[in-house]
Amino acid sequence: MPAILSSVLSNITDFVVHEGNGVKGLADMGLESLPKQYIQPAEERITTSTVIVDDTIPVIDLSDWGSDPKVGDMICEAAEKWGFFQIVNHGVPLEVLEEVKAATYRFFRQAAEEKNKHSKDNSPSNNVRYGTSFTPQAEKALEWKDYLSLFYVSDEEAAALWPSACRGEALTFMRNCDAVIKRLLKSLMKGLNVTEIDGTKESLLMGSKRINMNYYPKCPNPELTVGVGRHSDVSTLTILLQDQIGGLYVRKLDSDTWVHVPPINGAIVINVGDALQIMSNGRYKSIEHRVIANGSNNRISVPIFVNPRPNDIIGPLPELLESGEKAVYKNVLYSDYVKHFFRKAHDGKETVDFAKIN
Question: Exposed end of the chain (fewer CB within 10 Å): N or C?
């Protein structure tokens, strides 16, 4: 083993986290085996015995959204039974999708010194964060992933703080998704018999947004680790663009089996987050999902997390309780919920229990 690689492996946290090399820096050194810090417990790895190969999440064609009420019904049914679905013919231009994927690669191909300007130790704002794994200080085993996380406040702040390598493409992708996000939420609210989304409710459902750019380098022993561990999102909705490599798996509702989300060119993956599960009083389901590591290819994904505002109180929507439903969840400050999620390692659906009424 070369001396420089031996030195890196003896100080992985410094090299990967503090010096900004990320897991990409490890992969680029030509590793022949997975460092022990990334080896996941056996129960956290996906095996062929836990994967369903003949089932898949719904794919919904939005071409006739305005004229066919069945489209809205399919969206609500998918949110109830799967928590995940893919949309095609959604109106977001294909070139916008391709450009934000190219920008993701452009950011991560930069030198570590450039990326590290946006790390926790160096970024001038908590709204811009480059990092690796999920919560390294709380994890027993690290995840094989680097990320750039961008919380949107305003175009002015983005112009000042977001990395130039991907700023324009990230903003364009977010803007182009706004119309489809609003229509999805309108359909989902109609499914709860909430017929009017006024300004207050729209702000509660989609008052803040965060876009992440995720990079999963080729891995020497993909069967021993994960790209992302088991979790559900804390969002209202997540709008996910994945590349054509594949590797996203969702847990089938009330099951111990996992289903692959196959890449479809031009499609966008939609999933329900914890905030919407709570607001729908459990009708819509935020589902555990995870990403496997890949031994042959680098992989990227670009999720937009559509969230309440940090200072919003989330709980079952008043319209549901007024119709006689018993509340399953208590009211919680959204920022408290998010802090609870980020202070620990990925642990499946345990975060949503934080909001359950005992």
Answer: C
